[in-house]
Design a protein that fits this description.
Two copies of one chain form a homodimer.
Chain A (H helix, E strand, L loop, with lengths): L6 H19 L12 H4 L3 H12 L11 E5 L14 E4 L1 H36 L1 H12 L3 H27 L5 E8 L2 E14 L2 E5 L10 H9 L4 E4 L6 H16 L7 E3 L8 H6 L4 E7 L2 H10 L4 E5 L5 E4 L1 E2 L2 H13 L11 E5 L3 E3 L2 E3 L1 H15 L3 H8 L5 H10 L4 E4 L3 E2 L9 E2 L2 E6 L3 H4 L7 E7 L2 H15 L4 E4 L3 H14 L3 E3 L32 H5 L2 E9 L1
Parallel strand pairs in A: 5-6, 5-8, 6-7, 8-9, 10-12, 10-20, 11-13, 12-19, 18-19, 20-21
Antiparallel strand pairs in A: 1-2, 3-4, 4-22, 13-14, 15-18, 16-17
Chain lengths: ~550, ~550
């Protein structure tokens, strides 16, 4: 049933080959330039992308989907820009039926054709990367450069990474094998065996508000490449980036001769809870979700007919033991806190510092000096509002503001959060990070996630206790990132041992241009699947291998 | 933390290399000779193995495990032989604690060392394969040759296959990578990244009565190789084969310098339900189970902290449309029904035949003639009790006898089950297959599994209806095997399409020495994970990939 590959496979075969090497090497590689510079993308790309973005505003989004009965507009920009994009909205039954009908031809097209088409979708999205970046910026609240990188280039890299794993997994077995078993003096037994890659069913991707593309693309493309139609359920606050994605995906699918209903958008009206409706449909056999622990746990417990991949909350931790570059450490941690106002799932929250202070290249620093050093770095990065907002972006939603208010009662503020005026967007809600001092016994406070620009410096008895708190809190509540600062190899080894026990990725002594909240596609794994913050990693073999099954047939040769 | 590989890795590296090729080729290969002939295993092997088996009877099984408080003897041989083997029995807490304590050193030993040790365990088991075969025979009721093959050589092949997948998966990423990202005019960013393979936790293997080794080895060795300590919970009726396995595994582990508590036996007293107790322990992070749909579903629903791999019940189906070898077809199907008295999870149950009959090389055959042809083949194979029992073995437990009694009321018997006298074991319970004729509307009867020597010939309106019934029943209730007989390519294609939709492996026109109930390691996938009969396949990438996680650390180079 596998036909000759579609010409799009040959068109993108080199990219695939390079990506396959990259996932095997896990060294540096990127397929999509992360600099939005005109020298890379041309003089007109930025303006054209912005214009394309603006053309969507206050209009019906151009998407012709089955079952559309009305339109919904649910987005409110953190930058205070009026969006008013109206998305098709309608019947879940019609979406599920359309996706189901699209499956067989896509399944029977085989891995190579599917990869060719998926790679063409990525190429199409890359051609519209500025449009995508604007959409990410104005729905998530990310500053432009970050939206371009994380929401555009890096998201495409993660998508390509997922495609490479999916392809490697689908082709680790031959499509056909000749089996010949010796049978004593008689003729050998001979059989021809055909191994079909069979998708599980419909993939459901549930997007988040802060990283609508970066967190959705791996699941979307891993499911699609392995033969599953995909229904994309965006966060009501960040529909546009995924609507644009679905638009171009459908365009490419149709051009390639496939049913565009292989990728569908399920925008929802306020309070509709369409994700739960979809997640429980028997036809939905894969769910990818990024968001709250509560809802992720609900999906894992209830979407029992599906393979469920979740990324949830956690308590990212920094263990500060000592450093040979105090200024660099403070700058690096400070930058991590400022970036997107701490609204990354990878932002450090708990900074564990011995109450007696630490040894540094600048001599002994007391606990208060360490806290002040980090606060000072944050202060410096946010002193000039015009420069600051290009790092902080805007606050994604009111929940973050509520937590900022709530945290003030938990301990002494080492640094207060400030409201900043955004020079270009006067209605933008901008806040700088707060840092709160806590004792090691305040586990009820720091033992859970405070999503947003909220971090704690926690006074511990010793680095040994810091490591114990690290091990315990991450073991219980999970984390996506952890880092350690020490000039003592033994402490670094102990931190690495604790990280293995807690199942969290560890960064050591980051003092330069790499930050703990950043993970590089093709090299860093995002999340480990080994602690409660996520049950999977982006992206590895386990992330793709169960999105399809192998069904064989055999007959005598 | 990864040390130099243990010398056992080098000792078995060639075997591993060959197995890695085999899983990539899926052609014929076997590492362990399936013939129990003295020409292969030597003149004394059979007698020594039997003597070793007998030495266990009516004695304390030699296993020194933590937490042992008393002994249990729960086996009753289907051959009527007194077994009386007394296994260590004790506290679940002690087993879990011992396994947990054994984990870190095994994790830190790294993939190569673990593979070397696991391959040595297989070599040790192979050196005791006759002992193992006797244990399988006298607990499962399999005839000796089958016990030797399925319970010995083939089980070892499946174990090796699982080891190869586990190794491939653990080593698809390097242990270390240098990452160098260009940074404009400045120095590139350089980081050294270490990727640790981290086990999930304790693996629990829940064995079955009929294939105690074959069905348990893939999960046992996949978990162990990926760094997880394993607690083996045998079926109370088939403890000995797994006790022997645990004994030699512990022996090899200790010799290699590891904690023998990496592999533990959890024998249970009658009614203790120790599997459920273990499956819900938070330390248990992987469960492998073969058995009833009811209990498999319970595990999937309740052992939520674990990755659960289940093989459950199904309705294996044969679609008979036409044949160019009527005698061969009847002989082949008949043999499939006789083998181990239909007590294989792969034995055909529902044989769908058009009521109008079929075209064959012997001209048109009516429905009754087809049914009589299959019944005749069964009759011939079971006519001589002395020869028959070497195919049928004995009835594994009273549940099978109860179903044999129950099925008599469901339709007209084309063939009655007969009790046979076993020449060597007068107390053995031996039954030949029954075949019952049903109409296509009797779905309440044939729409569920009747485990044992029970099959139905079902009269359908047409092959089209047969395929529809095939698609529906397998889609709803699952199946491990399916086969089709047709001399029409279009029907074969339609059957293959139905098999893809239902997600079941299909065999076409088996008329010779290959039988639908047999699956060959390294070539055939056993179960698909794409229908309700199993949520995983033995063995593929998905079966191993989520038994461990990758935890990385990175620091500036």
């Amino acid at each position: 049933m596998t036909e000759t590959p579609h010409p799009l496979y040959a068109k993108h075969a080199d990219t695939l080959t390079r990506a396959l090497s990259a996932i095997a090497e896990r060294a540096y590689w990127s397929a999509y330039p992360e600099s939005p510079s005109p020298r890379v993308y041309g003089e007109t790309a930025a303006a054209e992308g912005e214009a394309a973005f603006r053309s969507y505003l206050d209009a019906d989004f151009p998407l012709d989907q089955p079952g559309t009965t009305d339109r919904v507009a649910t987005e409110r920009s953190p930058f205070g820009v009026e969006l008013g994009v109206r998305y098709p909205h309608g019947e879940v039954d019609a979406l599920v039926a359309a996706a189901t009908a699209a499956l067989p031809a896509w399944r029977d097209a085989g891995p190579q054709t599917r990869l060719g088409v998926c790679l063409e979708i990525l190429a199409r999205l890359h051609a519209h990367v500025f449009e995508l970046a604007n959409a990410v910026q104005f729905t998530s609240g990310q500053a432009f450069v970050m939206a371009f990188q994380a929401g555009g280039a890096h998201a495409l890299d993660r998508a390509l990474e997922a495609l490479a794993y999916a392809y490697a997994e689908m082709t680790r077995h031959p499509a056909r094998a000749e089996w010949e078993k010796p049978a004593g003096k008689g003729d050998p037994l001979r059989m021809t065996k055909t191994f079909h890659v069979v998708p599980r069913g419909i993939g459901l991707v549930i997007g988040c508000n802060t990283f609508p593309t970066w967190n959705s693309y791996p699941g979307l493309f891993a499911s699609l490449a392995t033969g599953n139609p995909v229904i994309v359920k965006p966060h009501p606050g960040a529909v546009l980036p995924l609507a644009i994605t679905v638009r171009y995906a459908r365009e490419v699918l149709a051009e390639a001769g496939f049913d565009p209903n292989l990728v569908l958008l399920a925008a929802e009206a306020p309070g509709e809870r369409i994700a739960s409706t979809l997640a429980l449909r028997p036809e939905v056999r894969i769910v990818d979700f990024t968001g709250s622990t509560e809802y992720g746990d609900w999906l894992e417990a209830n979407a029992r007919q599906a393979a469920v991949y979740t990324e949830k909350a956690g308590v990212n931790t920094v263990v500060v033991d000592s450093t040979s570059d105090f200024a660099g450490m403070c700058r690096n941690i400070g930058f991590s806190l400022v970036l997107y106002s701490g609204q990354m799932c990878t932002t450090p929250q708990n900074i564990l510092v011995p109450a007696d202070g630490i040894e540094t290249d600048q001599g002994h620093k007391s606990f208060d000096e360490v806290a002040a050093g980090i606060a000072g770095a944050v202060g410096k990065l946010t002193a000039d509002p015009a420069r600051a907002v290009e790092l902080t972006g805007a606050i994604v939603n009111d929940g973050v503001l509520a937590r900022l208010a709530e945290v003030t009662g938990t301990g002494e503020a080492v640094l207060e959060s400030r409201a900043l005026e955004h020079p270009a967007h006067p209605d933008a809600v901008v806040r700088t990070p707060t840092i709160v001092r806590l004792g090691a016994d305040a586990t009820t406070t720091y033992g859970r996630e405070w999503f947003g620009p909220i971090s704690f410096v926690i006074a511990t008895d010793s680095t040994e206790q810091s490591l114990e708190i690290f091990r315990t809190t991450v073991g219980e509540r999970g984390a996506l990132t952890a880092s350690v600062y020490s000039s003592d190899e033994k402490v670094l080894d102990a931190a690495e041992a604790a990280a293995l026990d807690a199942g969290v990725h560890l960064s050591c002594n980051l003092t330069g241009g790499v930050f703990v909240n950043q993970s590089a596609a093709f090299s860093d794994f995002h999340a480990s699947g080994a602690n409660p913050a996520a049950n999977a990693a982006l992206t590895d073999g386990a992330y793709v291998a169960n999105r399809f099954r192998i069904v064989q047939s055999r007959r005598h040769a």
